Amino acid sequence: MEARNLADFPRPVHHRIPNFKGSYLACQNIKDLAVFARTQEVKVDPDKPLEGVRLLALQSKKTLLVPTPRLRTGLFNKITPPPGATKDVLRKCATSQGVKNYSTPVGLDSRVLVDLVVVGSVAVSEKGWRIGKGEGYADLEYSMMVSMGAVSQGTPVVTIVHDCQVVDIPETLLEDHDLTVDYILTPTRVITTGCERPKPTGIVWSKISCEMMGKMPVLRSLHCREEQAGKDVTLRDKRQSPPGARAALSTVRSPRELPSLESGSLQGDDVPSSTVYVGNLPRDARVSELKRALSARGAAPSRLTWQGPQRGAFLHYRDPAEAWQAISRLQGFCLGANTARVALARRQGASGPAGGRAGEPHPDP
User: Given 57, 166, 317, 350, which is the most exposed site by the fewest CB atoms within 10 A?
Assistant: First the structure.
């Protein structure tokens, strides 16, 4: 697309859903789809080439939901234009900046029923097989919507691409969690794929890593809910542990040997942390009381480091997956009248504050 000068701002289009010349015209074709006409609630990805669809949804007074970038702060934002918004204001609301300025978060408990899903693509076949950037966000967003009951197998999926992006895709490239599309809109064509390949039926937890869990609080919440519902929520890291690894990891190490995460991102080259910090405990809390409460939640650690004067404790687990499982189980955890703060302990560097020792876990600030 770059070589043929088909790409449009922002350029270059490498490593992103590419915008292209004629994207606005391709978006207009959605008005010819009966599924758009009867849609009340539409989810449109935040990619630049889909801006025209977001504008049409707002102009048609449909409820517009846009996923949060990389799912870092939640799943959806509802775009809410100001009262009496003019066409120019609606056009601003449809841009990436407008999505930030005119949106309100939609929680997992919100009663969302999406009638139409619009996604960007890097390539798509006339059979409805789709390739994205390779990071899996569109597939994961759809799977999360399935898990929260927002979509079903019958919810139509539309993608908008340039004609040159419609190519043959070998079926061998597809996996069960890959999202397929029902309609392809280009500047010159409206393609009904008739795709019969099933769409994702929910989150495949065996594909989810501890690192992904660390970056997406909404994913941790869904993990907790599905675990409580009795589903298999074993993470990829845990499934792939070699024989004997669990026994080796169960050996308790001193706190300063434990690597960890800060705000969900890796520190240095260490493995993800298996230490969880629990803070905001009552001033009169006892360690025995905390241990009983953790056991009742199914989150008893291999070892506990009590930080009574700081009203907290470090919980040491056998591996990162077990630590994340504990965090999921401790969502909304209360001790006495206090709601505890639960997070992976961050690694404190050698020059850290308060004279902390190198590598020693500390609570996130």
Answer: 350
